[in-house]
Sequence to fold (261 residues):
Amino acid sequence: MLARTDIWTRTAKAVGGYADLCGERRGERAPLRTGDLIRFRSDRSKGFGLNALIPARSLILSTTVTAGLPRFELLAGPPTCCRISLTTASTGTGTLVTVEGQWEMRPRLFTSFYRRRILAAGQLLLGIVRLAAAETAVVVAGAIIENGRVLAARRTYPPVLAGKWELPGGKVRPGETDRVALARELFEELGVRAIIGERVGTDVAVDANLVLRCHRAQLGGALPTPKDHDEFRWLGAADLFSVEWLVSDQQILPHLEVLLT
Fold:
């Protein structure tokens, strides 16, 4: 979520500041890219006082994106030599976020004064991260229906889900619509060019910050080839419940049953 432009502009305002992307303008949900600069201003009535730290034009967050994970550095100039970095790293259970601050005070008489404001800047970044973590992410699934049967795929990972069945798909990336994301995921997972159709059912809550959306899909000619799954099955209405589906996908089955009959 932190790699999406609108997350920074909206969450910065929610924690008492303002943020905007410098330079080239892109779509609201466009992904951040290496070299992007985010300018921050503060709302003094919220108590952050970042404008008192240095001029607003100098309060810039520099972006570096590696393997889809962003790293940010907040650069400040005189009278404080300040560098605040926010680093993200993927772990087995989620994303680890680290905020570090380094500064050299000149003159030292104002050390305490500036330290409070630099800490406020770090708190601003942490506040943005906390709000971003509460944003709802979307997973899209494709109901590929051919000749009255729907394609089911068996997962191989993570271990807790291995052996269970799902409708193929994946997460919506920054800047993508649901349909674009599903077409990409089906090509990556099945090697097929699919035509994405109407919604099937409504949003399914996977957890507190993740929803599943299903769309009907039609193959563009080629047969699916297993890549991220170890087995495919074409299931009709009569045997739709013959496999062990993921809990989230189970909630889509009644809608699929209607389509298949």
Confidence is low (pLDDT under 50) at residues 45-58. DSSP finds six helices and 13 strands in the chain. Helices lie at 5-14, 50-53, 111-133, 178-190, 247-250, 253-260.
